[in-house]
Design goal:
Blueprint lengths: L2 H23 L5 H21 L5 H23 L6 H19 L4
Helix pairs in contact: 1-2, 1-3, 3-4
Pfam family, one: Multi_Drug_Res
Membrane topology: Multi-pass membrane protein
Protein name: Guanidinium exporter
């Protein structure tokens, strides 16, 4: 995996962080959770922009969102006791397959 893909995955991890952080901000009424969430947003988008220097925009954005979706959903299942029914897990699997497919189709 080259550096830009690693940066993109890291951007996706920060996306998970800010998506989960939104839950803890309580509508941006809690100071420190809001600060950490906004910081995670800035880092995530900055890393995404850096990765897009050499990766196709559509692929980079789709992978970034895919990592965020899957990670946030899994975090919700594990930490917030959200439902983990078969339909939901299959859909997450399809997203993972799409991300892998997009990564596999790019030689960079």
């Amino acid at each position: 995996m080259n550096t830009n893909w690693a940066i993109l995955i890291l951007a996706g991890l920060f996306e998970i962080g800010w998506a989960i952080g939104l839950k803890y901000t309580d509508g941006f009424s809690r100071f420190w959770p809001t600060v950490w969430t906004v910081l995670a947003i800035v880092i995530s988008v900055s890393l995404l922009g850096a990765a897009m220097k050499s990766l196709p925009v559509g692929t980079a954005y789709a992978v970034w969102v895919g990592v965020g979706i899957v990670g946030t959903a899994i975090f919700g299942i594990v930490v917030f006791d959200e439902p983990a029914n078969m339909y939901r897990l299959v859909c997450l699997g399809l997203i993972i397959a799409g991300v892998i497919g997009l990564k596999s189709g790019i030689s960079t």
